[in-house]
Write a structure and sequence with these properties.
The protein is mostly helical and about 100 residues long. Helices cover about 80% and strands about 0% of the residues. It has one domain. It has helices at about 1-10, 15-25, 35-60, 65-70, 75-100.
Length: about 100
């Protein structure tokens, strides 16, 4: 399952990461205690960016879903898995940056 989610996520990872890191930069790069206040808005920003990805993939790339459906994966399961992977990578990267700055 993880390899299918990774393959699916690679199609739009650049867009979601640009939106996420852009949101962090627009918030003036908070670190430390200020970072905790930004987790909620960044979560909703990521969720909205996944909604945009879902919409455009549903409109323009429906035939790509057939590959994953033939492997036995449902579309909602792929999106939930990709969202969780994206959250893990982004917030893990933020935690790493925060740790490196404070060391």
């Amino acid at each position: 399952m993880l390899s299918a989610v990774w393959l699916f996520y690679r199609q739009f990872w650049f867009f979601t990461n640009v939106v996420s890191w852009g949101g962090w930069l627009v918030a003036q790069v908070p670190l430390g205690d200020d970072l905790w206040l930004l987790f909620g808005p960044l979560f909703w920003l990521k969720l909205a960016s996944f909604g945009v990805v879902w919409y455009f993939m549903h409109i323009f790339s429906r035939q790509k879903y057939l590959f994953y459906q033939n492997m036995g994966h449902s579309i909602p399961r792929l999106f939930v898995g990709a969202f969780c992977l994206d959250m893990l990578l982004f917030f893990g990267g933020l935690a790493l940056i925060n740790w490196l700055i404070h060391v």
